[in-house]
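Q: Hi! Curious about what ABC transporter permease looks like structurally. Here's the sequence.
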Amino acid sequence: MDVLQQILTTATLFVILMKVAPILLAAIGGSFTQQGNILNIGLEGMMLMGAFTAIAVGSATGSALVGVLAAAGAGLALALLFALATLWWKADFIVVGIGVNLLAAGLTIFLLLVVYGSPGVTPPTASIRLPRIPLGPVADIPVIGPTINNQTALVWLAFLSVPLASLLLYRTRFGVHLRAVGEDEPAAEAAGIAVRRVKLGGVLISGLLSGIAGAQLSMATLGSFTANMTSGRGFIAVAALTFGLARPLRTMIAAVIFGAADAVADQLGIAGFNSNLALMTPYVITIIALVLVGIRFRGAWRARASAAPAPQAG
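A: Let's find out. The predicted structure is below.
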């Protein structure tokens, strides 16, 4: 009971929102590629590159906004590389996604060595944090007030991205074309849709949002960059969008579950539980979610196969 009292607090809810934001931003970005029938597992690398760039550029310029914009640009650059390799050079998108992740991991460590002389973490002189947004009287509302007060603008952007993504996917020409390409690419091409250009748009959106997700990760609390600080959050974002069937609202719900698991794991460590077991919590939930999704897809595939008319003889 004491452990539950330590975990179920407004401070925990505050941390949950903070941890959900980078996962949600990357997952919403990845849902655009998934809608175009591309599983972008390079979200991890795009997020990691965004995290480093946000700190490096933000601390150099003394502007958190410039840091966020630079992080978005870094994510876009890796997304463009991903698009060139998969859409123009016809490489397998899974292999390219792994390559993007390895490239980001190695490049950030190399830049840490070259720029700061340290392979592990940026020095205290290269530090910058995102400003917090006070909500005034709203902060006095029980439970809700302390939870949403003094969050960063990127937390608000993460949750705002859900209705914006829904609007873009279901109420615009681009969204209709992207979903058509994902459903049946040959038919979409026959209908006159520029398939490669539409897919490129989806990939670039994923890179943009993943780079911003990295900025939230590195600038929200620590204000510094640590090697491989994403720690699999990009893969958790992939799990969230898969669990949510790449639909914005469902993806948000999945991201909240995974972010909550991460926050609760931190609180369990503070409460004295084995830290390694606590750190496993979000990843165990991710595996369970993917298994459930796999079972759902298998059931849907079998139902579709049984419903299909049998070929007639002769």
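A: A fun detail: Residues 173 and 185 are 16 Å apart (CA to CA).
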